[in-house]
Amino acid sequence: MKSLIETIVEPLVDHPEHIVVTEQEEENKVVYHLQVHENDVGKVIGKNGRIAKSIRTVVYAAGMKSNKKIYLDIM
């Protein structure tokens, strides 16, 4: 899942070397934390959060096979 998030975000940012995805697994959920360069945060979030919502939709759909709820936090 981490590679999927990196693959989606990489073309959106100017500094792809600063993409960091960390995974925090708990009992019934998995939280992915996405960190990008401070100048790229707006590009990942998009106008009114549209790009962030689209990224989350793809990640949630990819994680439907697991029995755990998946969350994506953009920092």
TrEMBL record:
Keywords: Cell shape, Cell wall biogenesis/degradation, Chaperone, Cytoplasm, RNA-binding. One of its GO terms (molecular function) is RNA binding. GO terms for cellular component: cytoplasm. It is found in: Cytoplasm. The keyword Protein biosynthesis does not apply. The keyword Chaperone applies. It holds the Pfam family KH_KhpA-B. GO terms for biological process: cell wall organization; peptidoglycan biosynthetic process; regulation of cell shape. Belongs to the KhpA RNA-binding protein family. Forms a complex with KhpB. PANTHER family: RNA-BINDING PROTEIN KHPA, UPF0109 PROTEIN SCO5592. A probable RNA chaperone. Forms a complex with KhpB which binds to cellular RNA and controls its expression. Plays a role in peptidoglycan (PG) homeostasis and cell length regulation. This is RNA-binding protein KhpA. The gene is khpA.
